[in-house]
């Protein structure tokens, strides 16, 4: 009888331990070293990025780093357990006071990169470091520095904008909304709109509320996944000015598929295609280096010949256009 009574707490303890350390598809598991206090590693001075075409920059003290990060997914279907590589060997760094724009088409790997930065997805290989903390090993410590605006609105339709700010502040253990209040004021969420249920707000104002929630508690690293989607031109421009205003003392990373947004906001632009870092540099350097470029669309009458036609056309272009560079999207 005594052995059976002891088995219950022992089983609960073992279940709780395995729940913490066994890997899973979403989120990060704690390692065995988590019994000790997490200590941030020294911030490494290094180059910001490595890619096919990258601007030569001076070494900089990075507060956020992706070190040789790779992400693979296992999918089923006709070929069970087939591995799909979403992000390939991404090496990036972000300094305080800098805005990094992740630019790419749908499926380029932007949202997967954002998910790894937040710890929602663990990298298959490599490390993600935020202010010296490895996100996979010490997610709680790393997230203290982090504010996130996800790609899709995560709001309670029955709560007002003011209720959302107070809820977010309570979860972060801070008083007031800080910079978030200024953001809402600038995009017109004042008076009766501040107290209106989120379900009654326009899509642009709902999006602005999500951006404002990322700034609650004034975190030092802000992640914005397509922050201005659904906004009208006036609100979008106002949001750009606010993001530039609140850049000092923070590192901001935003993903977008709008070239004008990346050019307006980004101190540096990282262009992704099919999970690969294609080029990196300041907007001015990229325009001078790459020029305007062209988009080539190929159509084939037979689907089986599509790849053959595309390969022949690309080979012809690269032989006759010296110094040309191709991104397949």
Automatic annotation (TrEMBL):
One of its GO terms (molecular function) is ABC-type transporter activity. Residues 1-20 form the signal peptide. The keyword Chloroplast does not apply. GO terms for cellular component: membrane. It is found in: Membrane. Residues 64-299 form the ABC transporter domain. It comes from the Eukaryota. Keywords: ATP-binding, Membrane, Nucleotide-binding, Repeat, Signal, Transmembrane, Transmembrane helix, Transport. SMART domains: AAA. The keyword Nucleotidyltransferase does not apply. It is a multi-pass membrane protein. PROSITE patterns: ABC_TRANSPORTER_2 (PS50893). InterPro entries: AAA+_ATPase, ABC_transporter-like_ATP-bd, ABCA, P-loop_NTPase. Belongs to the ABC transporter superfamily. ABCA family. This is ABCA1 protein. It comes from Cladocopium goreaui.
């Amino acid at each position: 009888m005594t052995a059976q009574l002891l088995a219950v707490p022992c089983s609960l303890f073992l279940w709780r331990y395995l729940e913490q350390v066994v890997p899973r598809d979403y989120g990060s598991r704690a390692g065995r070293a988590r019994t000790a206090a997490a200590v941030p590693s020294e911030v490494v001075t290094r180059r910001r990025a490595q890619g096919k075409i990258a601007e030569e920059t001076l070494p900089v003290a990075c507060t956020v780093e992706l070190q040789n990060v790779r992400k693979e997914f296992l999918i089923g279907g006709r070929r069970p357990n087939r591995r799909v590589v979403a992000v390939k060997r991404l090496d990036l760094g972000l300094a305080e006071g800098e805005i990094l724009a992740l630019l790419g088409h749908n499926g380029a790997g932007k949202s997967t990169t954002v998910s790894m930065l937040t710890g929602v997805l663990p990298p298959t290989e490599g490390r993600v470091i935020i202010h010296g903390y490895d996100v996979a090993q010490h997610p709680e410590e790393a997230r203290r520095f982090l504010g996130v605006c996800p790609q899709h609105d995560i709001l309670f339709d029955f709560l007002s904008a003011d209720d959302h700010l107070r809820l977010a502040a309570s979860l972060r253990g801070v008083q007031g909304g800080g910079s978030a209040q200024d953001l809402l004021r600038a995009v017109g969420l004042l008076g009766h709109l501040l107290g209106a249920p989120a379900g009654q707000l326009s899509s642009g104002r709902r999006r602005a509320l999500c951006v404002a929630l990322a700034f609650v508690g004034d975190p030092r690293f802000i992640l914005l996944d397509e922050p201005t989607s659904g906004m009208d031109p006036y609100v979008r421009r106002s949001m750009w000015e606010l993001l530039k205003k609140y850049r000092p003392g923070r590192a901001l990373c935003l993903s977008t598929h709008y070239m004008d947004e990346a050019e307006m906001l980004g101190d540096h632009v990282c262009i992704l295609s099919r999970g690969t870092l294609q080029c990196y540099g300041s907007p001015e350097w990229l325009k001078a280096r790459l020029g305007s470029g062209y988009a080539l669309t190929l159509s084939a009458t037979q689907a089986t010949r599509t790849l053959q036609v595309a390969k022949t056309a690309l080979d012809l272009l690269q032989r006759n256009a010296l110094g040309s560079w191709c991104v397949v999207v």
